[in-house]
Amino acid sequence: MNNLKRPLWMRAGWPGVGSAAALCALVGCQTYERAPLNLAEHRSAFSSRLDNTEAIERFAERLAKADEAVVERFDPTDGLTQAEGEVLAIFYNADLRIARLDAGVALATFETAGLWEDPEFGFDGAEILSPAGPFEYGLTLSLTIPVSGRLGVEKDRAGAAYEAELRRIVDAEWRTRAQVRSAWAAWSAASERLGLLREVVGQVERVASITDRLESAGELTRVEARLLRVELVETRANIAQAKLDEASTRIRLLGLLGLSPDSSVELVPRFSGVRDGDIETSVDRLIEANTLLAVRRAEYQVAEESLRLEIREQYPDITLGTGFGSEDGDDRLLLGLSIPIPVLNANRAGIAQARAKWDVARVAAETTFERLTQELALAKASFDAARTQREAFERDLVPMLDEQSSEVERLADLGEVNTLILLETVTRRFEAKSRLLDLRLAELRAAIEITRLLGPEEAVSPAPIDAQTDTPPQNTTDSSAADDAPAEPRHENEASQ
After folding, report:
1. What is the full DSSP assignment across 295-347?
2. Is residue 10 part of a domain?
3. Per-residue three-class SS string for 1-36
């Protein structure tokens, strides 16, 4: 067959077709499959999270093994306690779920960082229009050899970024536990205030019945009787507001726990005080254990590794190439070598930007410390003020009003009734106890805030969540995963190299 009448790929006789097919066969390409978002299915799982607590129980056991247990056994059948609520929040809280998935992204980057660039296959062909002209071609295969050490620094930076995500999870978990404690105290206070109001309504109704008898007997004017009935109407109206406060605090608490707002779980109130000696305000402890400062340290480490990477990228990598070609009927072996010369660019822009971000990360850590010391001082001042007022109410005012109420009741039993004094005693006693609730809540919240700012007593790892529920972290925050993170990266002043 005449060469000009043969198909182009037959005329070329080039082995590129087979080589390209072999390369395509060796490439491990991943596939994609659509996964539609199904919120209706998630709604069902969201509403029934406490129907099967087996996964939560296993999680509580893992916390116990990790010496991070907040409750020895998870059993909400007899009511959900605050300690069990903290376990539930760590497991299901929405913000924590997102934080763990963000850490999964950083982990995927860390596991795939530092890989060599893929080799490049090239083909050049030329068809000579002359009838006797041969088809000329060239096949090349090039590979970049990272002699600059850039890939190792990329791995270090990705490891630092993953460690920063782990620190963010620890900070989010610690902050969530504080939020649960504060929300639990707010709900407990709202529930107790609702009970106080119901008790007051009963007392005012009793006064109102006495008022009706006195008014009928002419011993009480209509103006005085109307005043008592007004108080009864207002107190009944206040119960509706108290019910709303109790419901809203309960819904917010359930949201922190990751439960549906219409969940029927029974919550066990907890409104305990703070013992003397429980509150510490050491700034040294804040520097050492505050979880947000740990995040800032990790972010500073990322900025430092980013600067190392940009400095390392100014050094060139070598690109080697080889191939096979044909020109004028002569087969040829092709060799190539290229290396950038860092004279005009030398990655100066990248280095300058990374150095500026490094300075930003340092100042961010310093200003965060300054802000946290202010927050600690304010929390301590709030705690001291609330405790002083609460002790005064408990020691003096509330017992005094209790005694007043008892004496008025005794006088009423003897038939010596002054309804206005009785009503004033009831209302003042309720106001004092309601104010005492506010002070106890303020004191407890300040103590919780101080504890949050000072951080955990010992360094902790992210909670060991697994993927056996509708939460999809895929073990990215297991304590074993934290061990995969690299050690503290070294500071390397490479600018002088």
Report:
1. HHHHHHHHHHHHHHHHHHTTSPPEEEEEEEEEETTEEEEEEEEE---TTS-TT
2. no
3. CCHHHCCHHHHHCCCHHHHHHHHHHHCCCCCCCCCC
Report the alpha-carbon distance of residue 497 to residue 492 in Å, rounded. 10
Instruction: Give the Cα separation of 441 and 432 in Å (integer).
Output: 14
Both structure tokens of 122: 């090239």
CA 8/CA 11 separation, integer angstroms: 5
DSSP 130-160: STTPPEEEEEEEEEEE-TT-HHHHHHHHHHH
Q: Do β-strands 120-127 and 318-327 pair in parallel, antiparallel, or remain unpaired?
A: unpaired
Domain count across the chain: 1
In a domain, residue 494? The reply is no
Give every CB contact of residue 135 below 8 A, 6+ residues apart in sequence: 8, 11, 12, 125, 126, 127, 128, 326
For 414-458, the pLDDT digits (tens) are 556 677 777 788 888 889 999 999 999 999 999 999 999 999 888
269 and 188 Cβ atoms separated by less than 8 Å? yes
pLDDT digits (tens, 9 = 90+) for 309-335: 999 988 888 888 888 877 766 777 878
Q: What is the CATH number of the domain that holds 386?
A: 1.20.1600.10
pLDDT the model gives residue 412: 63
Look at the block and give the residue holding tokens 């070294």: 490
Measured N-to-C along each axis, helices 419-454 and 150-216 cross at an angle, to the nearest 10 degrees, of: 170
DSSP string, 347-407: THHHHHHHHHHHHHHHHHHHHHHHHHHHHHHHHHHHHHHHHHHHHHIIIIIHHHHHHHHHH
Amino acid at 67: D
Range of the domain at 217: 42-459+470-484
Token digits of residue 191: 């529930």
Neighbours of 188 (CB within 10 A): 24
